[in-house]
Amino acid sequence: MRVTGTGHASMRIDTPAGSILCDPWVNPAYFASWFPFPDNSQLDWDTLGDVDYLYVSHLHRDHFDAAHLKRYVSKKATVLLPAFPTSEMEDELRELGFTHFLKAPNEEVVELDGGLKVMIQALTSPTDGPIGDSSLWVEYDGVRLLNQNDARPTDLSLFAELGHVHAHMLQFSGAIWYPMVYELPQAAKTAFGKQKRDRQFDRTWRYIDDLKADHVFPIAGPPCFLDDALWQFNDIHGDEGNIFPDQSVFLSEYAKVGGTNAVVLLPGSVAEVTTETCETSHPVPVEEFFANKVAHLEEMRERKRPIIEAEKASWRHPEIDVLKEMQRRIEPLLDESIYIAKGVGGPVRFDLVGYDGESVESIVVDFPGKQVRPYADEKVRYRFRTERALIEHLLHIGEVDWVNSLFLSCRFSAARIGQYNEFVYSFFKCLSEERLQYSEGWYDEHERAVDAEDITIGDWVVQRRCPHLKADLSRFGVVEGDQLTCQLHGWRFDLSSGRCLTSVGHKIRAHRVDEQAPAPAGESLT
């Protein structure tokens, strides 16, 4: 099995039975804030895109590059389609000209022509990517590969049961806006960033240990930030709180925990994987490339500057009345929202900075009141500040996912009172009838689900599944004193009260080993 690195989470997998191109991303994403690093725009994409199969793991735009897919990927390719809850991915790919689809049953091995086998695991929580994320398992002639990319399954046992894996590709770096955009003192921002960076690596080590593959490939990050306004987000400034470590940092951190089987893929690197070996060739020496990272970034910044400026010139739409258009699009969804609106629990404020860089229009999305209105000097628990032009553009193009556009762009600042609230971001990625109805149904189902199984961790008996996204706490749960941390997503719980310390809601069931379990509500112990 030959694996060619094509940048970020993208790779081309070649076997005698066929070729698969995964997640090709080249063009800037999220309001021209993210670029692939190392740069992959100069690869021979005409050749790379001439494949038998296309696999797109999810709709995040650093994985789903519509312009690149339309121009460079053969429309004769069969799309390996994850079993997502909505038809959005298939609909978008059909609009780009793809007509051949293999709708893979979730978590079932499918044998393709020539003995090539694949299995796709689709994750379908509203917080998994833009309504869905996935992993791809591939086997040919006894060689097995798992492309986990960004996906965060609760465990990898499903893949391990299919046989020993020889190549494991997974994310290790950040792909979020926290904590950089929050209006915090720099010391606090650094501390939170370091905590997140450490959690990212801890989660990666746990996945690697779960699968025990022969070779580990760090992929799916980090992006680079070439706009002058975002340059500080690149991990080149000696900031221990930077959440975007690169592959060279991965190698260093992995070595600290005993890792010796890492393989880095630069764009153009080729790894020949067998059941016994992995021989890799690179276009330039990996160590030398990352030693010159700053120079590479500076060269990219100058080369890509015209692309960024052209994008910026397209964002302004002064003809749009932002308040009226937000009312028209958002208020009907507020009327239909039950679980998400209750989870948000209050108004969310948007401060829109005008073209002059000074004037501000403040608009409130009032979840309890089910309306969008001008800000009325009330206290809000969540506030976002961004350029008016960005919101104009989102409304102009009918964007249904502001997470997969505005928030991932990092072109905003945020402030909040109290805990993180996942429902805020769930709502703003569900600005369509289809997405909202699916998410409401998902929350309804999980609200009513009862996790009856308990496990013991240290001095505590706790429910086995994390209340957040059902991670197995026998594997991801760590107890320190009276607090439990689920290392899959870093959520923390106070075990004495059951209260979630990371977000609103999500109470956990727990009691000390030497104490009797409390009676369920409405019952008494006899």
TrEMBL record:
Gene3D superfamilies: Ribonuclease Z/Hydroxyacylglutathione hydrolase-like, Rieske [2Fe-2S] iron-sulphur domain. The keyword Signal does not apply. InterPro entries: RibonucZ/Hydroxyglut_hydro, Rieske_2Fe-2S, Rieske_2Fe-2S_sf, SCP2_Rv3818. It comes from the Bacteria. PANTHER family: N-ACYL-PHOSPHATIDYLETHANOLAMINE-HYDROLYZING PHOSPHOLIPASE D (PTHR15032:SF4). Pfam families: Rieske, SCP2_Rv3818. Keywords: 2Fe-2S, Iron, Iron-sulfur, Metal-binding. Residues 461-522 form the Rieske domain. This is MBL fold metallo-hydrolase.
